[in-house]
Amino acid sequence: MTTPAQTLGGMGHSVKRKEDPRFLRGKGRYIDDIKLPGMIYMDIVRSPYAHAMITKIDASKALALPGVLAVITGKDLDAAGLAWMPTLMSDKQMVLPVDRVVYQAQEVAAVIATERYIAADAIQLVEVEYDPLPPVVDPFKALQPDSPLVRTDREQKTNHIWHWEAGDAAQTDAAFASAEVVVKEDLYIPRIHVCSIETCGCVASFDKVEGKLTIYMTTQAPHAIRTVYSLVTGIPENKIRVVSPDIGGGFGGKVPVYPGYVIASVASIQTGLPVKWIEDRSENIQADSFARDYHITAELAADKDGTMKALRVKTLADHGAFDAAANPSKFPAGLFSVVTGSYNLQAAHVEVDGVYTNKPSGGVAYRCSFRVTEAVHTIERMVDVLAQKLQVDPADLRMKNFIQPESFPYKSPTGWEYDSGNYPAALQKAMAKIGYADLRREQAEKRARGELMGIGISTFTEIVGAGPSHTFDILGIKMFDSCEIRVHPTGSAIVRIGVQTQGQGHETTFAQIVAEELGLPVENITVEHGDTDTAPYGLGTYASRSTPTAGAATAVAARKIREKGKNIAAHLLEANPDDIEWSDYKFQVKGAPGRSVTMKDIAFAAYTNFPQGMEGGLEAVDYYDPPNLTFPFGAYICVVDIDRGTGAVKIRRFLAVDDCGNIINPMIVEGQIHGGLTMGMAPALLEAITYDENGNMQQGTMMEYLLPTAMETPVWETDKTVTPSPHHPLGAKGVGESATVGAPPAIANAVVDALAHVGVTHIDIPMTPWKVYQLLEEHGLAEV
Amino acid sequence: MSDVKQQVTLTINGQPVTAEIEPRLLLVHFIREVANLTGTHIGCDTTSCGACAVLVNGVPAKSCTMFAVQADGAEIRTVEGLEQGGVLHPVQEGFFQEHGLQCGFCTPGMMMTAVAFLEQHPNPTDGEIRQAISGNLCRCTGYVNIVKSIQYAAGKMREQQAAPAMATASTEATR
Amino acid sequence: MALHFEGTQQIKAPQEKVWQFVLDPNKVAECAPGFKSMEILADDHFKPTLAVGIGAVKATFTFDVQLEDVQPQTHAAMRGRGNAAGSAVDLKAAMDLKPVSESETTMDWTADVNVSGTIASVGARLLEGTARKLTAQFFDCFRQKLEAPEEARISEVQTPETPGT
User: Fold this and answer.
1) Is the sign of the CA dihedral B101, B107, B108, B114 positive or negative?
2) CB contact under 8 A, A694 and C116
3) A584 and A719 in one domain?
4) Are A483 and A550 in contact, with CB atoms under 8 Å apart?
5) Residues A659 and A756 occupy one common structural domain
6) How far is CA A521 from CA A8, A10, A21, A517, C41, in A?
């Protein structure tokens, strides 16, 4: 027998997804599916050089091709003041260059044509002459006085962008001075590219009669884009409509404003026709926003008994040619200062320096939670380095140093207040489930036989839900989020939110929140988002913020409806509102449960039978300013076997125990973990973007840049603990990026663990077979 | 840049589609733009991702790496042809039940590959499934639930094979 | 990608003859890999069009080549830039001739090739090997042509493209 709760499909139920029916039938509406009458196509001419002056652009042959309508260059945009645009980090970025290119594959000119294939032909006919300049691709060299200058437009003639610090240097120095053991490592976390299966694109459509620009765009943050567009173009915001259609994966790669969107908008405004621009995969990999590229030096100070005391981290952040990382404005290095992790350290000092190089811009576009991937990789590797130095088990060292459950809320040395956590419980659960002691025994036996088996642990604390208005803004817009609920007379509802799904299942999970709060069945609740004309203002979906912010707004808006509902219930039940309670998904008279009405009854009454003096209708809006971030966490254990003949690392088992507080839909959460683990394994074993000395990217297509297939991906094992957030209305935390954050160090720690007995203390990711094999050779372990 | 057009007829999901096209028009563009079936997607430019997979005369093919003229006279099955008489194909049902999709972009190609595979291998191991879909990239799901979805479908298709009298309008299993 | 190659050819031909050959753009063009056509702007300035392929990527490059530092009989250098859609090649080459005897000459050559764009990105792993081979073929072709008896020159067959290039 199904309980009322199961019928409703509220919190905690694995409701099947409401978005699936259209996707399963091939009826999704992705950007390239959008066809508008009269639509024309845009393609982009790109620079082969990483750094060059443009001496001439001759578009005559392209313009002579039948079907070509226009060729747009930087000079054309400059005349309209649009050759440059602001980035989300208050830097500026070229839309099209007037005279200089600063990264390979940079947009140089755009062709507008009647057909897609004609536009593709025409870009080959645009003749561009360049005078190559020496590029700078090494961020360390970029800081030398004799380095080529990437940004001649800036006042300060240096490639150094900013310096940022967190923590207390003096306290940290003192802790290091008195520490008995110090370990130090250099870590490089390479540049990677998120490569969602759908690339980026837009259809820009300017209506000359209405003076209104509608732009369908693969964007994770439609409202913020609309505001930026208005500020840059001068078109009033009510005359701009940004629509996110179905998005084929975002992961942060669809947050930035790419030049293609702006050029297509300009082309539409000029022609009055809808302009479609869909980038190729090679354009996507070569020019769009990257992630990571942090050169880190980390030091961890401890006592001989294993008590960790302090952490010192210095980082050089390679940002490419523009600072266009989509971080909250006060955090140019994102939330990297959460690097003290799950441990009770006395002191910490973190420094990051951002630097320009002749590469595409970005920094946080790969499911990284605003640089938490970099932070967790650092601390989890250093904990293992310390364990190795002290010759103690890495699980024991972690248990000894965890922030204890009774210490929450916990103020970290870098100023974060962790809301809740129980790290020992998660690690103990993981160790018991995977049989940690047995694995160590097996490892010892195998090691004696010369077989290389490794066990790696990662106990991470994530930090999501940006964020409280006192600290978090993007270009000045505070990072609240929103929900608007309207209940119809016959008991169904429409919910509009300010966040934007790209596969996370918001149409289901947000309906579930309302189902739980209002006692209406989840199938009767429609969730809409992504259209700035109708959705309430929000900051979008990235950095796992949707449940912490918009999820809270949804609960609060629903509770406002319940508050009004209580008064209608009192009217219907002829009781005092103070005597009405919400229980078992009904409004009941206290002490007389037989006298009750459902939300469905209330909905009808809100339009047909409400008390005199009360406003009719049943709706509410909430703009939620979170009081804090939320801190999901996890304990991951990875078992690897290394092939001595090839250096190949095989993940034999991987167990992820995650805690994201109260769970809306367990099936969806598990899916997020599976996907996140795969996007954690990829940088650990397979993916890196590298550049040669000329600034050529060496992984320009999916032939060189290898995404994991079903063959490389292990069978992920998952489990959970539940430690609710004390400040979130649903006790929920975010979870979308936890696995991408936690997995890479678990895998790296496993590989190092497999080789620790020959003195290996650190390996940078990706741990490709060649890299591992060279290490085996170096240590006499390679089999020929 | 070709102005010599050619007339082709492709039968897509049982419906003939005739058009005059450039010889260089990719099959995926024929399906999406000429036949207006946008369920088949484009995810890369090097035949690497499989989002464009359709069945050409019963065999999975990456439609971005074929010209439409090469498919002249062929029978093409796309995701839009899986549902029959209002009943989802067991593969579609499996993906729904086992949460085998998140953003949905790789899903049509993944399902078409699975359909062809299961028609040849009605009782696969998980390892065989993983090998069969190794030409289809997914960034969202981590593949675990996709394998479960395909096993679900395999079970359902075996059931339908075993009891054809009970089969509904969905005749996929009796091929 | 920045590539540097160098080599030496022992050519059984007098220095004068080698020098004349090297300065003749039409002769040199016959040896250029994937040669399609050429515009001659001046004695020392030419624009050859070459079809070059690396792995899956083939492109037609229009080169702008300038001879420089010409020291009669002994030394010549060349600087060129080639563009194709999305790719660019910058190259510098130099050649020195020394007589070994009346009928034999040593040619020492160096080439610096900088490749940018699609061809460098997509073909990166194959680039060095292919470029080295094409460069060596180019200079070896000089030797072959110079050593061939006069009459046989007319029926000489171009070095065929190796499959898979």
Assistant:
1) negative
2) yes
3) no
4) yes
5) yes
6) 4, 8, 18, 11, 80
- Domain end (from A600, A624, A648): A624
Give CA A194 to chain center in angstroms.
Answer: 10
Average pLDDT of the segment spanning A189-211: 97
Let me know if A29 is a catalytic residue: no
Specify if A171 maps to a domain.
Answer: no
Residues A96 and A240 in one domain: yes
Q: How far is B171 from chain A (nearest CA, A)?
A: 17
Residue A53 lies in a domain: yes
Residue C117 reports pLDDT greater than 90: no
Instruction: Judge contact between A66 and A322, C-beta under 8 A.
Output: no
In angstroms, rounded to a whole number, what is the distance separating the alpha carbons of residues A674 and A683? 15
Q: Are residues A668 and A686 in the same domain?
A: yes
Nearest 10 degrees: Cα torsion C111, C114, C120, C125:
40
> Is A368 one of the catalytic residues?
yes
Q: Do A49 and C87 touch (CB under 8 A)?
A: no
How far from A510 is each of A485, A493, A500, A518, A522, CA to CA, in Å? 11, 12, 11, 12, 9
CB contact under 8 A, A132 and C116: yes
pLDDT tens for A612-654 read 999 999 999 999 999 999 999 999 999 999 999 999 999 999 9
Predicted pLDDT at B2: 53
A213 burial via Cβ count (<10 Å: 0-12, 13-18, 19+): buried
Angle between helices A394-401 and A423-434 (to 10 degrees): 160
In a domain, A748, yes or no: yes
* Per-residue pLDDT at C152 exceeds 70: no
Give the residue-averaged pLDDT of A119-135: 95
pLDDT for the residue numbered C148:
84
CA count, 13 A, side-chain hemisphere, A573: 27
Q: Name the residue among B24, B105, B146 with its Cβ closest to that of A248.
A: B105
Which 3-state string (H, E, C) describes A117-178? HHHHHHHCCCEEEEEECCCCCCHHHHCCCCCCCCCCCCCCCCCEEEEEEEECHHHHHHHHHC
Model pLDDT, residue C59:
79
Residues 28-67 of A with CB under 8 A from C: 46-50
> Each residue of C13-28: pLDDT tens digit?
999 999 998 888 888 8
Average pLDDT over residues A458-477: 96
Cis peptide before A409 (omega within 30 of 0): yes
CA distance B105 to A200: 13
The dihedral of CA B155, B161, B165, B167: what is its sign? positive
Domains of chain C in start order, with CATH, are 2-148 (3.30.530.20)
Does any domain span residue A711? yes
Task: Give the mean model confidence (pLDDT) for residues B34-61.
Answer: 97
pLDDT range class, residue B82, cuts 50, 70, 90? very high
Residue B173, pLDDT above cutoff 60 = no
Helix (H) or strand (E) segment spanning residue A568: helix A552-573
Token readout for A356 is: 């320009």
Single residue among A602, A624, A646 that ends a domain in this structure: A624
pLDDT at A416 over 50: yes
The closest CB to that of A248, out of B48, B83, B103, belongs to B103
- CATH code assigned at A659: 3.30.365.10
**Phi and psi for A745 in degrees, rounded to 5?**
-65, -30
> What type of residue sits at position A181?
V
Catalytic residue among A195, A202, A368, A638: A368
- Same-domain status, A549 and A401: no
Helices (runs of H) and strands (runs of E) counted in chain A: 21, 34
User: Cβ(A86)–Cβ(A228) under 8 Å?
Assistant: yes
Domain count, chain A: 3
Rounded to whole angstroms, how far apart are CA atoms A420 and A628? Answer: 11
Contact A696 C85 (CB under 8 A): no
Q: Which domain holds residue A128?
A: 34-133+197-249+254-287
CB contact under 8 A, A702 and B42: no
